[in-house]
Amino acid sequence: MARKSQRTVARAIAGALAKRDRLEMQAADKLLSFVERRRKPVGAERGEARSRPMTVSTQSRSWRGFRSILCPVDFSEHSRRALRYAESVAARANARLTVTYANDPLLVAAAAVALHDRRIAQRSATELRAFVEGTLAGRGLQWKSQVSVGDPAQAILKAAARTRADLIVLGTHGLTGANRLLIGSTTLSVLQRTTVPVLAVPAARDEGELPHSWPGERIAFALELSGSGSRTGVDGAARVAAWFESSLILLHVVDEIAAPNWFRGDLSAHERILVQRAQQQIDQLAARARRIVPAEGRVVCGRIADEVAALMATERINLLITELRERRGWFGARRGSVSYHVLAHAVSPVLACPPQWLR
Fold first, then answer.
1. What sign for the dihedral angle of Cα 198, 319, 249, 27?
2. Beta carbons within 8 Å of 166's beta carbon, 6+ residues apart
3. Highest mean pLDDT out of 167-171, 212-216, 336-340
4. CA angle, 170 as apex, 166 and 175 as ends, to 5°?
């Protein structure tokens, strides 16, 4: 009897949720239709004016691509791989490439006292030039190297401002938990404070040569659905895809609803409605992106990082774009935390963009 009562309550809750979502979806459709009618040019409904699709050439006038690239290294093989990605991006538009290394101030002080070596910064500069020369493929790029002393994250951000970098390329081990505090904190700190995009390169499972055509035919943009912010974010991602001469996959993940096993069956209808509603919005955004590049939309249900990693692996996506969303309220996730979590599971580089940059 108690079991039957539970099922009755579950069906009532699921039915109420589904009804609420249908009403919200109808209201959103009416609002979008009203906005689109207001945005039409005068006489458009009578065929007197027709807007032409935006092409890559007209869109690219407002953004010339990445022109100044900063790549921090730590002399590891992982940072060498990140430097190769920085070279690949710079080669597309003959951009300026700056390679930097930050000496740990504690290491400098210890060397000065214990080893009587007060020229560690000079030695680091010599080693940095040799590291860069031994890594770059000789594409004729103009590059320079810089050595500083200080906290790595702070030194990276200062170097980006000093060189007027519009892209930071850095390697990250993609670790979580206690290991993140020791190794990945620099990446997370940069993501939280940067004003320019960060191309975070995860550890490679296969250390093969980086193809000259990277990132290839398709890149993906993992996005949240948030009204006008979604539309402007898609415009920015489409501009990046056009610059890389790639098509674009828009991916939205509907968070899996946590519920006890006895309630899961009743939630399936509710989740299907959420996915259907999200798919309608993604299809509209994909149509908007197709004014600039070939695009398609995907909606899946599950855990964000897992679903993004699965798409990149199965579709062989070599570049993922994410937006560094700001904290929502006192208890919202810190800026960059979602992108970092995605990066921890990613098999390909992640281009994390500040919100204002994609606008």
1. negative
2. 66, 67, 68, 69, 196, 197
3. 167-171
4. 140
Nearest to 203 by CA among 349, 16, 33, 25: 349
Q: Selecting from 3.40.50.620, 3.20.20.140, 3.30.70.3270, 2.60.120.260, what CATH number does the domain 2-32+215-358 have?
A: 3.40.50.620
Question: Tokens representing 166?
Answer: 């519009």
Average pLDDT on 310-316 reads: 87
Placement of tokens 């945005």 in the chain: 39
What secondary structure does DSSP assign to 119-154, as a single string? Answer: -HHHHHHHHHHHHHHHHS------EEEEEEES-HHH
CATH value of 60-201 in 3.40.50.300, 3.30.70.580, 3.40.50.620, 1.10.10.10: 3.40.50.620
Query: Does the structure show a pLDDT above 60 at 117?
Result: no
Q: Which two tokens stand for residue 185?
A: 């904190």
SS3 300: strand
- Picking from 71, 232, 92, the residue whose alpha carbon sits closest to that of residue 167 is 71
Exposed, middle or buried by CB within 10 Å (0-12, 13-18, 19+), for 249?
buried
Q: What is the mean pLDDT of residues 296-315?
A: 87
Distances, alpha carbon 126 to alpha carbons 63, 100, 121, 130, in Å = 36, 12, 9, 6
Write out the two tokens for 76.
Answer: 């590891």
Residue 28: other Cβ atoms inside 10 A: 14
pTM reported for the whole predicted model = 0.74
What's the confidence (pLDDT) of residue 41?
A: 45
The Cα–Cα gap between 296 and 230 comes to: 15
Q: In the predicted model, what is the mean pLDDT of residues 39-48? A: 41
206, 108 in Cβ contact below 8 A?
no
Tell me the mean pLDDT in the region 184-208. 81
Residue 39 pLDDT > 80, yes or no? Answer: no
